[in-house]
Amino acid sequence: MVKGKQLKGILPKTYTSFRNDLLKELLRIFNYSALNKINDELLDTIEQAAVDVIIRDTLWSELPESYDDSQLHEYRRKIYEFVYSAYPAV
């Protein structure tokens, strides 16, 4: 039987109905720290995309129409780089 304090609250109460080899394989596949890392990376990507969308929408609404798409894209890239260099925790 799989034992350990680190598993408390993670496994369902019926985990004893699984074979030990199956439990070990499931725990290996669904390594908790690996899932947390993937989750953190996904959240970072979503946050970065959200910042990028805010910059884009602000530029589109605030800059005169005389700016073309390539200029907007360049300003957007520069602002994005500035935000992440000035505020790395964002």
Structure description:
This protein has 90 residues and is mainly alpha-helical. The protein has two domains: 1-30, no CATH class; 31-90. Helix content is 66%, strand content 0%. It is built from three helices and no strands. It has helices spanning 20-29, 32-62, 69-86. Helix 2 (32-62) packs across helix 3 (69-86). The two termini are 44 Å apart. The model has no long low-confidence stretch (mean pLDDT 77).
Essential attributes:
mainly alpha, 90 residues
Show the helix and strand layout:
Elements: H1 20-29, H2 32-62, H3 69-86
Helix pairs in contact: 2-3
Number of strands: 0
Overall tally of domains:
2
Contiguous uncertain segments of 5+ residues: none
**Order of H and E elements:** HHH
Please work out how many helical segments DSSP would assign. Answer: 3
Shape: rod-shaped
Strand content: under 5%
Distance between the termini: 44 Å
Helix content bin: 55-70%
Radius of gyration: 23 Å
Structural class: mainly alpha
- Mean pLDDT score: 77
Largest sheet report: none
Summarize the structure.
The chain is mainly alpha-helical and 90 residues long.
